[in-house]
Amino acid sequence: MDKRVLIIGVGLIGGSIALAIKKEHPGAYIIGYDLNEENCRLAERMNIIDECSPSFEKEAVKSDLIILACPVEEVEQKICQLAELPLKPEAIITDVGSTKVKIMEKSAVLRKKGAVFIGGHPMAGSHKSGAGSARKHLFENAFYILTPAKDTNEEIVCELKDWLKGTGANFVIMEPEEHDMITGVVSHLPHLIAAGIVSQVEKHSGINERVRWLAAGGFRDITRIASSSPAMWGDIVKHNQSSLLSLIDEWIDEMKHIKELVQSGNKNNIYNYFANAKKFRDSLPVRARGAIDAFYDLYVDVLDKPGVISHVTTILAEKKISLTNIRILEAREDVFGVLRLSFQTEEDRQKARDCLNENDYETYLNM
Ligand SMILES: NC(=O)c1ccc[n+]([C@@H]2O[C@H](COP(=O)([O-])OP(=O)(O)OC[C@H]3O[C@@H](n4cnc5c(N)ncnc54)[C@H](O)[C@@H]3O)[C@@H](O)[C@H]2O)c1
Ligand SMILES: O=C(O)C(=O)C[C@]1(C(=O)O)C=C[C@@H](O)C=C1
């Protein structure tokens, strides 16, 4: 008999996981449950899930795999509710939450009842929310962290990896504490800082409305993540409070150092500060997904003349290659401009590169 999968919270991540599971396990029957019924119905209409259920309790007891894909405080609540149900003894329960310490602590209530809970966190995502943003390739090449409890059988961890193999992600086993410290540095603190930068710019735009007009590429790049779901981030910050408090202290020291550099006016030291940051940033793996490379980007040199963008997009459309984003990064007078094209997959990027090269465009994978 085909296996049943229940996804609680069919948003960006829950929906993307559902699509990835269908890819490798087409026989699995995927049921979605979401507090936002409209979102769940959308997932059903988009064939992300097979069925939208009004009761997670009714479905949980019949499921072989249960994935908690709601905000992290809701994950904790769902763990407690599931612990009250007569779940199938062989069922695997996992989550996709961005924090792991509190979730693993809470999961003891399930494990005490003999159920299997393996914490999970795919390290890829987006600032977008809801089933409408779900993508089956979202996690390709990303790291997918798993935090099994010490007494979890390795075979069951392999079974979960098999369920999730359609994500195309690289699985990494980690202790919850290490997970929360690392994600605090590379994800949680940066989200707080992005919101802080936006808040500062908002204050200035109240004084001078031209601030809004000039908020261009740099500001948008560094603050994209400030457009993420406030419900999700409110929960993450609460869950990872202790790591964040120490990281915020470190950040304040870093800003004091920057202030001293600026005050000193020492061009050499300021140069070195930027050069060091550039060196480390440039050394981060480009192809691996995760914090940096969220999409497959291709850079194209284009002449600064009317019609060039539509020429490029027409070439791609003729070959049925879909773009996820297009952006002009640089337009220097009478020389070249640079277009950044983003694709959903490596294959699309390569096809685009080949046909643009055939049309005499110079293309690059990195800028
Ligand atoms: N967005 C990212 O980049 C990202 C990446 C990795 C992990 N995560 C984690 O994945 C989880 C989901 O995030 P998302 O980005 O998919 O958010 P989302 O807002 O797109 O989806 C979350 C869904 O959960 C539903 N929900 C909320 N409370 C619920 C409840 N009690 N019962 C059932 N459904 C409920 C919401 O209605 C929503 O549809 C979060 O725990 C987040 O920390 C997010
Ligand atoms: O790309 C983004 O928009 C993300 O914020 C994704 C991101 C991240 O910080 O890298 C956000 C939260 C996660 O738990 C994992 C990934």
Report on this structure.
It is a single chain. This protein starts with a strand and ends with a strand. The longest helix is centred in the middle third of the chain and has 32 residues, at 176-207. The protein is an alpha/beta fold and 367 residues long. Helix 8 (176-207) crosses helix 12 (241-264). Strand 2, helix 2 (37-45) and strand 3 (51-52) form a beta-alpha-beta unit. Residues 331-335 have low confidence and may be disordered. It has an 8-stranded mixed β-sheet with strand order 3-2-1-4-5-6-7-8, sandwiched between helices. Helix content is 49%, strand content 17%. It is built from 15 helices and 12 strands. The protein has 3 domains: 4-175, NAD(P)-binding Rossmann-like Domain (Rossmann fold, 3-Layer(aba) Sandwich); 179-283, 6-phosphogluconate dehydrogenase C-terminal fold (Orthogonal Bundle), CATH 1.10.3660.10; 296-364, VC0802-like (2-Layer Sandwich). The chain has helices at residues 12-24, 37-45, 56-60, 72-83, 101-106, 108-112, 154-163, 176-207, 210-214, 217-223, 230-239, 241-264, 267-283, 308-318, 346-358, and strands spanning 4-8, 29-33, 51-52, 65-68, 92-95, 116-122, 143-148, 170-173, 296-303, 323-331, 336-343, 363-364. The radius of gyration is 23 Å and the shape is globular. It binds nicotinamide-adenine-dinucleotide and prephenic acid (PRE). Prephenic acid is lined by residues 98, 123-127, 187, 225, 228, 291, 294.
